[in-house]
């Protein structure tokens, strides 16, 4: 008797929910939560089901697949936590927030290591008994810097990379190694103020609300599918510096919420958009 | 070929979704949206399904009922708009908002009449070609006032009464005539500041956020199931009057959203709480 | 004995608040509210003071000017309401909201007329006894269309033009006639999704929050100083059409709040940004 | 040449701003920010001024006092950080947030110690090199428990006590030792759900928004002046446990914002309300 989550993605057609719930019913499994969505443009069907009972994974997946059209993606993620590596530069707030949640069992993932292109957050990571690796970028080509990161990641084999205010751009070949597996926090309400120095840009434009965006990283900078966005009202008395300061709380909350959604298998990718069953 | 919504409420048990979607599948109906929820305490199952296709109402309802335990509530609301009467006192903002939405086809309901215990909003209602009835309360007992209202309602037979800043308390016998059919907008974030003069109370307490609550009316004053709540930040510079003024926008938006949810059959009642499939 | 508002803008320097409050003190005027701000980059000083008492306008302004550096802008707006003309196309929601507020004395301004490049909102304006002028754009050059509008405006001489979902671009010469006097509601969270069809753009980008922006119109499209911005969370189930529908409420609230700020003399322009004393 | 903040509270009267800014002007001090407020009911005047320049504290305070009515409160807080002790029970999130901000210089205060009525957060405090004192309550009377706390506080002499999810009620004599100096985070949107188990209460009532309230502690439980309130939308799918989980982020942000306001001398007390110059 255990709790599990079933994830399905396939071409839409009649009777899909009936078929999948039938497979679960015949296996005497008890559905506790069920979400479906059909993307109107692509005619793709997405389904997330939480259930409990006794079952054999491969056999259940096969039964479910039998109720679906050819090419259906069926996943039954195991109970072991996600293996995650966090990349940082010199800003501490997102990393600190993740380390605290991790230490108190609130992050459904295991942070295996932190990699910094500065060495300044080593003390923070080590306080929480997470290994810190300093991989400088200065004086190196992007390829050399990324090769250094890859050699650190090699023995860890993480499922996800979290860019927690990692202020460098990753190359397309690097990104391609973790499709749908690299999550970034951008310090603006994308697509407003993509690129560098968003708080400076926001100040110049005189906006009355700032925000943060957690998104999957693709090879198009700041253009990947958005997972979560949060905002904060501001006014004329804010300087670029005080905008950045106010923005930090929003950044860390936005990243934490996005990671919870991803790690709990609530996020599907559909072209350049996310479908989220919360 | 038409679009319809199926609403189900029953005791929870295994295979309910499978059974219901099976009935729809066998009838060659195409499900476009599906929500289910089980209330953990009461073990009640709630389901809302949007579908399209050709079908005969009574027969489909019977098929669906066959897949459910005894005592299941199965509804297939027709396409005719809800018949609604709005009760008001002297404040115009919620009524004006509803009349505008109604006039431009944004309210999935028909406002058959407005009843006021003051005569001051007659002009507003009549501008939008909605009949206005003045039913004074002064000098009358509550029973007499309500008898007057009932005689106005008698020929209209509305499905819903909307209390759009109607500042009087309805008796239990009156409320009992529209179970789950009377919706009120209360000018506070309930249960804070129940009762009279909530903005005065909020001012006294020095709160930093005010709100509004749309709820079903039961015979316990301000205690009925909550449909929607919205809030607004305030500060020390607000007087009770400016709190009330700021609150008006929140009141009208909260009421409008609650009515959309109710009229689109998205709200289920479960004891003293609402289950909302949005 | 009357209430008034004093508005000051000048080069920053020592003792400005002391000087201005001294002039008011010597005139036996009672300050009830006072806001100051210095823009760090431009070294401009902005001050807004509410006061009451008996005074002669020109003389008080002269006294105040004597306490300020040369070139200071000193304003003592009179009590007569702003004269406003609203421009619309075919969407009704912002216009309806303004007409209701206007009819019930909640807009500190007088709506002298509505001009539409479609005729479809005539009935709405006339319901509220506001003259409606149909000035079509079809088959006309922009110059001809604007000449038509100008000939309508000529006898009215409005202080402000409000673009309440007026879906056409005004020429630079037209805009130059009302510097700081044309207010637009843009249906996105600028600078995201400037230009046409912002809800379609927001859908394509898969954002999780949409918004609206009220701003002054300058000759750079969608680039004028921002007055107010509001947002709304959305999710993957929204279509471009349902984003637009959800956005309407935000648009009308954002415009109404911006107009209140402008009409109560709470908004100063400082380069391409606004300074707002609320 | 240094930056300082001047805080004034007195009976209202004519010319107060003029008098105070005159004292600063004569001392050749440069005002960079200025806020005033008069509470209409009590006729109390509140003013907060940031300025920079060279001055002798006692002398400047005397000059300012000369411009004010008898009984005026004039404060020129020094630059040394506030000395703070944090009280906790077993929940970690607010404490962790404060320790991180403290460690990275973002809290304008020094956390001298943490006192817990459980020992479980010792490791967290010590990670950040803050002394932890375990003062159990079990088997002790409230007087004995508080005597233990007081003996820990005695050598520290903190200016502020922060109750960061300290789940016990302090006695009136204890509270009286720090008037306006004890800040609590309550896990509801007060005055809704005062008292014990607010998330359980919120679940029972079926609210659609939950919140947190940071307030000064007085001897009336959960009735002290409110500093900051934040809210979060929730729905029927939340259990009391998931409400509590969702609420934690709001609690820690609300407490952090309230403390920033208090420690930056932005909060005045006016009867049972706060006046906040942000």
Spatial arrangement of strands, main beta sheet of chain A: 7-6-5-8-9-10-11
Estimate the global geometry of chain A from the Cα principal axes: globular
Give the CATH class of the largest domain in chain A. Alpha Beta
Query: Which class best fits the helix and strand makeup of chain A?
Result: alpha/beta
The major pleated sheet of chain A works out as: 7 strands, mixed
CATH architecture of the largest domain in chain A: 3-Layer(aba) Sandwich
Kindly, what is the distance between the CA atoms of the first and last residues of chain A, rounded to a whole number of angstroms?
24 Å
Counted by DSSP, the helix tally of chain A is 8
Low-confidence regions of chain A? none
Report the mean per-residue pLDDT of chain A as an integer: 95
Number of domains of chain A: 2
The CATH superfamily of the largest domain in chain A is known as Formyl transferase, N-terminal domain
Please give the radius of gyration of chain A in angstroms.
21 Å
By oligomeric state, this entry counts as homotetramer
Tell me how many strands of chain A there are.
Answer: 13
SSE succession of chain A: EHEEHEEHEHEHEHEHEEHEE
What percent of residues of chain A are in strands? 25-35%
Largest interface, C-beta closer than 8 angstroms, per-chain residues? A-C, 32 and 32 residues
- The share of residues in helices of chain A is 25-40%
């Amino acid at each position: 008797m255990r709790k599990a989550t079933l994830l399905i993605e396939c071409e839409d057609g009649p009777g899909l929910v009936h078929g999948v719930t039938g497979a679960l019913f015949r296996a005497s499994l008890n559905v506790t939560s069920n979400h479906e969505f059909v993307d109107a443009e692509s005619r793709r069907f997405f389904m997330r089901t939480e259930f409990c009972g006794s079952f054999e994974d491969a056999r259940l997946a096969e039964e479910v697949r039998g109720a679906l059209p050819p090419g259906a993606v069926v996943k039954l993620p195991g109970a072991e936590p996600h293996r995650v590596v966090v990349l940082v530069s010199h800003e501490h707030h997102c990393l600190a927030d993740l380390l605290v949640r991790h230490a108190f069992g609130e992050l459904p993932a295991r942070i295996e290591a932190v990699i910094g292109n500065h060495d300044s957050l080593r003390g923070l990571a080590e306080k929480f008994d997470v290994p810190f690796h300093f991989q400088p970028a200065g004086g190196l080509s992007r390829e050399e810097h990324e090769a250094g990161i890859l050699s650190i990641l090699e023995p860890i084999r993480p499922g996800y990379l979290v860019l927690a205010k990692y202020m460098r751009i990753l190359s397309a070949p690097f990104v391609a190694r973790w499709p749908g597996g690299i999550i970034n926090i951008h310090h603006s309400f994308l697509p407003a103020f993509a690129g560098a120095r968003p708080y400076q840009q926001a100040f110049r434009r005189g906006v009355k609300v700032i925000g943060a965006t957690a998104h999957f990283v693709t090879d198009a900078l700041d253009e990947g599918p958005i997972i979560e966005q949060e905002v904060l009202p501001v006014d004329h008395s804010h300087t670029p510096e005080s905008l950045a300061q106010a923005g930090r709380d929003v950044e860390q909350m936005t990243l934490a919420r996005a990671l919870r959604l991803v790690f709990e298998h609530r996020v599907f990718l559909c072209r350049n958009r996310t479908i989220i069953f919360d």
